[in-house]
Structure formats: structure tokens, C-alpha cells
Design brief:
It is built from five helices and three strands; from the N terminus they run H-E-E-E-H-H-H-H. The chain has about 150 residues and is an alpha+beta fold. A three-stranded antiparallel sheet has the order 1-2-3. Strand 1 (about 55-60) and strand 2 form a beta hairpin. It is elongated. InterPro entries: Cuticle_assoc_protein.
């Protein structure tokens, strides 16, 4: 009796000219396109932060996992672990770097600034020598390098 078998796998497994690419234990066939993308993904990671417009990574990763990142404009370098601390330090430098193009520190009116500090000293009962504290001057200088300091007298 002639019956039509729908479960016949002979048609599915028929030879369509790919017998040379069959995989055996000694010579497995590997899709080269998949391998090359895996290698590229492992070696080169795209960098999305805006800081990479101002910085370049110099050399390879150090043994402790850190990178040497150099400013393109002032050649100041940072050795940071990008996986741990990210790019915040580099972004902060690019905002305050005086040699970065189109980066201007806002001009402040020295008399208005001095009056504001004087009001803070009076309002919070701070000593007049507050303006001479080393850390206060460092913080103010960090905020704006053009600040002119004065003494308590």
C-alpha cells in the first residue's frame, strides 16, 4: 500500500550541496562573522561620554585596571579606574580647564561676592578670619579661579 508520510524526514535531510560544510569532531565549522563581532566587542568598547571629546586614553590598561587619560588641550593627565569611578573627574576638568576652547569661566563682580561673604559671616556668627581659612580659599578658588581674596581687616 502506498501511503504518504508527513513525518518523513528524508526530504528535510536531503543533500542540497552542503556536505562539505558538515561538522565533524576534528574540523568544526565556525561562523566567522559571529567570531569577528565577538572579538571586536571584547577589545573595543564604544565610549559615549562627552569627556572623550577632550580626553584620550594613552596606552593600554595598567595591571591594576586603571587607564591614563590625557587632556587634549593642557596635557594634564589622570590615572583612573573607568569601571569604578566613571568619567566625572574628566568632565569636571573639561569644564574648568582654561585651555579648552569655548570654555569661559563666568565673570563675577568682586564687590558683590565680597558683600555676600560678609553677609554670611554676620548671619551665621562666623569669625572674621573665616575668609583666611586655607580650605575655604581653596574651595572658592576651585569654584572660580578669578576670585580675588581679601583679609579679615
Amino acid at each position: 500500500m502506498d501511503t504518504l508520510s508527513l513525518n518523513n524526514d528524508d526530504d528535510y535531510m536531503s543533500d542540497n550541496g552542503d556536505s562539505e560544510q558538515e561538522m565533524d569532531e576534528n574540523n568544526p565549522v565556525v561562523d566567522e562573522s559571529l567570531m569577528s563581532t565577538a572579538e571586536v566587542k571584547g577589545k573595543h568598547k564604544r565610549r559615549h561620554s562627552k569627556c572623550w571629546n577632550f580626553f584620550t586614553i594613552e596606552g593600554d590598561r595598567m595591571p591594576d585596571g586603571k587607564f591614563k587619560c590625557v587632556c587634549n588641550y593642557c596635557n594634564h593627565f589622570y590615572i583612573i579606574d573607568l569601571h569604578r569611578s566613571g568619567t566625572t573627574t574628566l568632565l569636571r576638568h573639561s569644564r574648568t580647564c582654561s585651555k579648552t576652547p569655548n570654555n569661559t569661566c563666568p565673570k563675577i563682580d568682586q564687590l558683590v561676592f565680597r558683600e555676600m561673604i560678609a553677609m554670611a559671616i554676620v548671619e551665621h556668627d562666623l569669625p572674621y578670619s573665616f575668609v583666611e581659612y586655607r580650605r575655604v580659599r581653596e574651595a572658592l578658588h576651585y569654584a572660580n579661579p578669578t576670585i580675588e581674596f581679601w583679609c579679615r581687616n
